[in-house]
Each structure stands twice: as C-alpha cells, then as structure tokens.
Amino acid sequence: MVFTFSDHKESCTEEVDDDESSSSSHPDSPEMDRNPSPPPEGAEESVEEADAIGSTVYSKHWLFSTLTRLIEVSEQGEGLEELSEELEDELCKVWDMAMDKDVASFLQEFKAPDILLGVIAKSHCPRLTEICVGILGNMSCFHDTCVSLSQNADLCAVLILLLGDSDPPTLLETCRLLVTCVSQPDVAPMWMERIQQQSATCSNLCFIMRSSTNVELLMKVGELVDKLFDEDEGLMKSWLSELPSESDRDKDTHQDITSSLLEAAIQLRKESPEALEVYLHALQLLTTVHEGVQSLVSDGGCGEALWRFLCEVVCEDLCQPGDPPLILQEQKALLAPAVALLSVLHNSLQTDISLSLVCSLLRILYLHTENQQSLPNGEDEEDKDVQLQVLVEMAVELLSTILTDLPKVRLTHNLLHEAQQLFIFTPRKGFYSIKLI
Questions:
Q1: For an engineered disulfide with 39, which of 16, 32, 43, 97 has Cβ 3.0 to 4.6 Å away?
Q2: Domain that holds residue 146
C-alpha cells in the first residue's frame, strides 16, 4: 500500500493561511487554542482488529514483545536460574493462550518453535524450560501445528532427550507433549522412529517409573509407554531385550521394562486406580509377544511378583463381598487386564492357587449374571458391553483352567469343601449362576 501526503500537506497549508489571515484581521483578539479533531469513527476499532490474533482478543504486539523479552533473557545462559515474577506471569499467559487454535497457528507462523528450541537448549532455569515445553505441548494439540512441530527434527530430538531431565514438572510437560504427538496418526511413525533411535529413552523412562513418587508424572509416563507399545510392536520387542548402556544412570542396578512397569503399578495401587489401569494394560501388551512372556517367567523375571500383586488387587481391592452388581461395570477396565495377565502367568508359572482368587473369579461371574437379569428383555447383542463380555470370557477360561488343574497344583486340602460352604450354584436360564450365602 502506497501512502501519499501531498493533498494532506496542501490542506494543512490552506488551514494555516486561513488562521493567519483571521489572526491578522483581528490583531487585538486573544490567540485561540483548538483541540485536535477526533479520529474518524471506527478507526480505533480497526486498529484493534488489526492487532488481534485471528478471532481472539489477544494482541499480536503484546505477544511479539513477550517473545522478544524471552529471547533477551535466554541470552543470559547459565547466569539465569530463576525467572522474575513479572516475566513468569507473562510467559504463563502465553502458555495458556497457546491452547487457542488461532494463537497456536500464529505462534507457528512467527517461528515460535525455533525460538523456544533455542531457549530450551540454553536454559539452566527449570521453570523456564517447563513453560517452553508446556507452550509447545499446547500447540501440539492442534493437527496442523502438531504436524509442523513434528517435522522439526532438531526440536523433536531435544524433546526426547528431555526425558532424561531431573525436574519433575519439565518431565511431566515433556511426556504430555509426546503422548499428544504419538496419538496423531499422521506423525506417530516419525516419533516412533526417533524414539527408537534414541538409545537412552527406555532407560530414562524406567528410571522415572522406579524412582518417582509423583502420581501425575507416573500416569503420563505410563500413558506414553502404553501408547508406544500399542503403536509399535517392534519398539516393544527392542525394549524387552535392551541391556544397560554406559550412559544408563543406574546400570549397576539396571531393571528391565517389565519390572519397572510393575514397580510403578505397585506405587499407584492405592493412589490412582486410573493410572494403575494404564500400567496393567501396558503389561498386558507385553504378553502379546513371546519375548514379553519370557521376560516375565524366565529366571530373574518378575512373573511371580506380578502374580502376587495381581492376586492382591483382584482379591482385596475389586469386587468385594457385599458389593452391588453394578460395581462390575465400574471396575471392568481394571479387572480385564488383571485377569488376562493372571491367565498368561498361570499357564507359565507353577504357583499356588488361593481360595480367594477362585472366589473372586466366581464373584465376577455372579455379578455379571445378576446384571444380565436386570437387562430389559429382547436387548440386541450389539448393545452388549464388549469389554465386559471379554472380561467374563477370560474369567470363565481362567476358572476353567484352574479347576481342571486342581490335582496338579499345590492347594490346601479343604479348598473344595470351603468353596462349597461359600457358594451355592443355582441353574438359571441355562447358566450356573453363583449366589453368595
């Protein structure tokens, strides 16, 4: 756009001449001061609209100035260990703003990821690193910006390396970002390849699972591992066979991925059923490949410890005597992977079968039968809960195997007698339902 000022200058000259002639014609009159004319109607609104980011009320100018300050501060390098309260507040505003799609796109166009990458690389301030990763994580929530971020190889490499950081909030934001990216089908293969190429990734995640007591962080790490295993069987197999490297922080006390998952699950048992569900599902995925089963049941594996843990969860935490039938619906997501793991382990380990486990499996079938009786007549098969059906089938299969192998396993002599005292079997609609006395 070309601006010309000639007409405006001439009009200004004419106004000056008029004022001078008026003044000269009235030499004795006092000099008159005049307020400037108001701006044209709507001018302020148009300026505000031009400064707004997309359809938001956020200011481009403010965002530019904040990012400029961020660059200036990052130049301090090792000298910066803490942020000023004012700058931290402003950066946190950017973090929140990045959850808006228009802002995320604008940040991408403004090359903010490159700026943030430079800041992260130089930062010796944990809070600054956390905020920068958090901004990138919010940007990755949108498909287009996630694709653009994922194509930045240097940025991705730095983010994966951050899994070795010692700051829990930074680790949490890093895991959130990685979970978001590997959940996007268009970019997941790129991330899988980079994660597998970075040899320290598995040991870094194992270290977090073994040492952290932060429930939120353990939850996100579990989600990341579960997603990686679900998406890439090759990566899962490579991690199962991974040996400690020279860079492993705990190579002398190295623990494999299976024992690390179990240790985190034990930590989360009483803290977060939702997080425990994630870890049990990840462990179940391991048993879908031969290498995973072998890592559990081989000498030195954690199969027996996992068996004992699962028995405690199923027998002490879930589907207790007196629970209403609907409890099965609430607990099915935890019960399904637990029963699946017990089935695999029972087929491979010579373990004691407790009366409590038999009773818990029977109780699952009883509660399911009670729920079935409460359904309206004529309900279509497609309306049934698939996950619940799978759970019931696995419980039936495991119970059948246990009862078949009764003479082969070490059981207390009065197991059957006690079971008869606890349960009464009554035929109902062609299926033996179980009624607790």
A1: 43
A2: 58-198
**How many percent of the chain have pLDDT more than 70?**
76
How many Å apart are CA 150 and CA 190, to the nearest integer?
Answer: 7
Over the range 234-258, which residues count as b (16 or more CB within 10 Å of their CB) and which as e?
ebbbebbebebeeebbeeeebbbbb
Burial readout 66-97 (b: 16 or more C-beta within 10 A, e: otherwise): bbeebeebbeeeeebeebeeebeebbeebbeb
Residue positions counted in the chain:
437
By C-alpha distance, which of 318, 326, 218 is closest to 263?
A: 218
Number of domains making up the chain:
3
Distance, CA of 315 to CA of 327 (rounded, Å): 14
Higher pLDDT, 140 or 426: 140
pLDDT score, position 382: 46
Co-location of 280 and 352 in the same domain: no
- Give the pLDDT confidence score for residue 244 in this predicted structure: 55
Q: Are residues 166 and 81 in the same domain?
A: yes
- Residue 330 in any domain: the answer is yes
Q: What is the pLDDT of residues 249-305, one digit of tens each?
A: 555 444 699 999 999 999 999 999 999 999 999 999 999 999 999 999 998 899 999
Q: What is the pTM of this model?
A: 0.81
Residue 14: the pLDDT is 44
Cα distances (Å, whole numbers) of residue 407 to 284, 344, 411, 412: 28, 20, 8, 11
CA distance 191 to 236: 14
List CB contacts of 412: < 8 A, sequence separation 6 or more.
Answer: 355
* 354 and 224 within one domain: no
Going from the C-alpha of 56 to that of each of 50, 100, 103, 387, the distances in angstroms are 11, 8, 8, 42
CATH number for the domain that contains residue 75: 1.25.10.10
Q: Quick check: is 18 in a domain? A: no
**Do 269 and 310 contact (CB within 8 A), yes or no?**
no
- Helix H or strand E encompassing 1: none
**Whether residues 342 and 431 fall in one domain:** yes
**Strand boundaries in 8-82, DSSP class E:** none
Instruction: For residue 209, give the nearest of 278, 117, 159, 157 by alpha carbon.
Output: 278
Q: What are the tens digits of pLDDT across the range 367-384?
A: 999 988 887 765 554 467
Same-domain pairing of 168 and 215: no
Identify whether residues 129 and 164 lie together within a single domain: yes
Antiparallel, parallel or unpaired: β 431-436 and 423-428: antiparallel
Beta bridge partners of 434: 425
Q: Is residue 111 a part of any domain in this protein?
A: yes
